[in-house]
Amino acid sequence: MSTTPRSLVLFNYDWDAAAYAGLRAGFPHDTAGFDLFSFPSNARLAAFDLDRFVGRLAAAAPRRGWKAVVSNHEQFGALAAAMLAERAGWPGTPVEAVLACQHKLHARRVLEAVCPEASLRYAPLEAAYGGPIPEGLDYPLFVKPVKAAFSVLARTVNSRADLHRHTRFGAWELWVIRHLVEPFERVARRRLADAGSAHRMMLEEPVHARQYNLDGYVWNGAVHALGCVDAIMYPGTQSFMRFDLPSRLDAGVRARALEVARRFLAAIGYTHGAFNMEFFHDDASDRLTVIEFNPRLASQFGDLYRRVDGRDPHALTLWLAHGRDPAALPRATPAYGAASSLVYRTFPGTAAPPMPSRAQVAQLKARFADAVLFTFPKSPAQVARDHKWLGSYRHGILHLGGQDAADLRARAEEASRILGWVPPYGAYHRQSDAGVPAGVPVIA
Fold first, then answer.
1. Around Cβ 89, how many Cβ atoms within 10 Å?
2. What is the pLDDT of residue 2?
3. How far is CA 279 from CA 5, 106, 289, 299, 335, in A?
4. Would the pTM of this model clear 0.70, i.e. be above it?
5. DSSP 3-state assignment of 360?
6. In this structure, which topology does domain 336-435 adopt according to CATH?
7. How far, in Å, CA of 256 to CA of 252, rounded?
8. Alpha-carbon distance 285 to 347, whole Å?
9. How far apart are CA 365 and CA 148, in angstroms?
10. How far apart are CA 103 and CA 203, in angstroms?
11. Which H or E run contains 156?
């Protein structure tokens, strides 16, 4: 029987649900929140309010015995967890620090002030949702929402007409966008008023460089690195093809990334909690530029760290939530020398492959006992929306380990054949292992 007080895990789905379930014996917990991607759960979006949600949880906490809260959910969970921890007097990330990370325009301003060498040129898009596009912009540009998650509506545009098309929304799309942003907006208006409205989009300079993720945590105000994950893109797109561990990035560059994180997080008062910093590094110029900071664990990578490093990032978040120093967290013997999160996608103009049958899934598990598979079946209308909002339809994710990168690739290609899907490797990756091909945009 665990002697650890009960925890509350907010918006606990997919990788989080599996990882926290495995920790239940040592960290008993309950869950709250809803799934943004399934009906009827996501119908709660219509009336969702963060203050009311947190208020109900705070009122229930004494009765349920909760003494800690954690969430790795970008859209609502990380902010709700910070608000609840503050209200209950539990260890947590300061609310203003979460807001400062998630308000992408404000985060750019802070980064420009404290780490100008790691910032990109940026500007707000001076147009309301669906409004006329200003004249005189210098294309190409990278456009993204000031508040969003999952790379929604983030893409490179090459002309005014392209930007105009990208920012035309139907009535249903506008309803969804506003209801995704408004819960954040109501809190930010009170707690981060100088940042301005999050109901808008912003522009950044496009970058042609490799992309990486620095994962870490802050304990007693000190920033610690967990590791670095390489992001490999589908050729000529901004869509993730794979996430690889261990990283191939030079240790010196990783140290520079950690120093940038220290300066930014100190500037926004991020004194406690896990974080993820997405960044570019250009091999030719040695320039390091920040894409964004996420005020929570990148939960998709947790399984990779458990396989390769023997460290459990999900356990780390629970230790932080209970006020325990993660430096004392036990570390297991690594099971693999390399691991990947393989992302299967289709793009506009291509048909999505069938979801694997029960027989195929059984064959996969029989051949690869370590395989972790997520499938994302969607209707034709949902696929079309993904093509517009995300630039692709992610129909599956597979996690595998291997003795090394070559063994991992062989296993991944065999597993893909079993599923009937095109493996996320190929000639592009062999070329990009030696350097990003000239002219291929690799953009967050």
1. 8
2. 67
3. 37, 17, 6, 17, 28
4. yes
5. helix
6. Glycinamide Ribonucleotide Synthetase; Chain A, domain 4 (3.90.600)
7. 6
8. 31
9. 35
10. 14
11. strand 155-157
Closest alpha carbon to 23 in 339, 322, 343, 397: 322
For the chain, which residues score pLDDT lower than 50? 150, 427-444
- The confidence score (pLDDT) of residue 146 equals 95
User: Angle formed by the axes of helices 77-88 and 95-102, to 10°?
Assistant: 170
Residue 282's closest CA among 391, 124, 438?
A: 438
Enumerate residues 6+ apart whose C-beta is below 8 A from 141: 156, 157, 163, 203, 204, 205, 206
* Distance in angstroms (rounded) separating the CA atoms of residues 240 and 356: 21
Contact 344, 396 (CB under 8 A): yes
Domain range annotation of the chain: 6-94, 117-204, 336-435
Q: SS3 breakdown of the chain: % helix, strand, coil, rounded to 5? A: 40, 20, 40
Architecture of domain 6-94: 3-Layer(aba) Sandwich (3.40)
Task: Look at the block and give the residue holding tokens 């609502």.
Answer: 76
Q: Are 382 and 173 in contact (CB under 8 A)?
A: no
Residue 39's pLDDT is: 73
DSSP 186-239: HHHHHHSGGG--SSSEEEE---BSEEEEEEEEEETTEEEEEEEEEEEEPTTSSS
Predicted local confidence at residue 426, as pLDDT? 56
- Hey, is 267 helix, strand or coil? helix
Q: How high is the pLDDT of residue 173?
A: 81
> Residues near 202 by Cβ (< 8 Å), separated by ≥ 6?
104, 105, 108, 122, 123, 124, 125, 143, 144, 145, 146
- Position 422 scores a pLDDT of 92
- Give me the helices (H) in 92-170, please: 95-102, 104-114, 160-166
d(CA 143, CA 389): 12
The pLDDT value recorded for residue 131 is: 87
- Residue count of the chain: 444
Parallel, antiparallel, or unpaired for β 122-124 and 29-32? unpaired
pLDDT reported for residue 1: 52
pLDDT, tens digit, 9 for 90 and up, residues 317-364: 999 999 999 999 999 999 999 999 999 999 988 888 999 999 999 999
210-219 and 222-233 beta bridge pairing: antiparallel
> How far apart are alpha carbons 310 and 304 in whole angstroms?
9
